[in-house]
Amino acid sequence: MLKELIPSLLSCMLAMNSVVEASSPQPHSIKAREANETTPRNFGVVVFRAMLMQDMIGVVDPLQNMAHKFPMNLYILSSTLDPVTTEPASAAMNVHNSSFWPTINPTHTFATAPEDIEVLIVPGGPGVRAPDVSAMTNFIRDRYPKLRYLLTVCTGAGLAAKSGVLDGRRATTNKSAWKTITSYGPNTTWVSPARWVVDGNIWSSSGATAGLDLTFAWIEHIWGQEWAEYVMGLQEYVPHPQDFDPFAAKFNITPTGSL
Ligand SMILES: *[C@@H]1O[C@H](CO)[C@@H](O)[C@H](O)[C@H]1NC(C)=O
Ligand SMILES: *[C@@H]1O[C@H](CO)[C@@H](O)[C@H](O)[C@H]1NC(C)=O
Ligand SMILES: *[C@@H]1O[C@H](CO)[C@@H](O)[C@H](O)[C@H]1NC(C)=O
Ligand SMILES: *[C@@H]1O[C@H](CO)[C@@H](O)[C@H](O)[C@H]1NC(C)=O
Q1: Superkingdom, according to UniProt (predicted)?
Q2: What is the mean pLDDT of residues 146-156?
């Protein structure tokens, strides 16, 4: 009985597998790409109180699809190993005493972060405006010279600016927080309109969901267009072009810098 069941179960599983593959074909170049030593492997994401989960997840989720196909490690980095909450820093800032604040567990502290992190992801959120962000900015400043890429989303560019790594570089940030965040980087060429900006190995995006567009462009840069399209299919995402930025006008930003 069982013996008869196993082959039919197996063929059912195989059939399911081929259905999955038919609906999401993956690029043919997978073998060559797997052997490509230049593909980044070790990723870190900086997390902090009152961050925005979307900023982090918009980068991490698409890349997670790539981690099913390539060896990739994600390190979640903060000042301590305590869970990091999106809760406002003080009760006074939580006007309605809401309890709507997810948490995330760091895997390492800034002090114990693996030395071989190649790509650092810096999300934004209200916590960027906290009076003391030096734990994050010191880490970004120390690690930047060893990184292959720095990716900032939204007001995360504010942390990068305060750490000095955006000096003399072009970058963009959250359009609704433009004045505050750009003031953190007086020697940065801030670019608007821009969905995202690339200057050398620093990729910065506009507000929250713009991080998705930055990520797909970056996946294309690293793994190629076929892979970017493969992941867009899995995420059912239609990307925006780099010059898509209705929010620049919405928030009355005088055009500045260039893509
Ligand atoms: C805030 O909400 C918590 C429950 O989530 C409750 O225990 C606490 O008493 C509330 N504080 C105020 C000031 O309403
Ligand atoms: C963008 O800026 C606006 C205005 O300051 C703020 O409400 C919003 O939370 C910011 N988004 C992020 C992700 O920081
Ligand atoms: C910006 O550049 C000016 C002139 O080079 C310099 O004096 C100033 O210290 C710089 N500011 C920052 C925050 O790097
Ligand atoms: C390795 O990756 C680089 C950068 O994406 C690309 O230019 C190169 O063609 C790749 N090599 C192979 C063998 O896939």
Answers
A1: Eukaryota
A2: 98
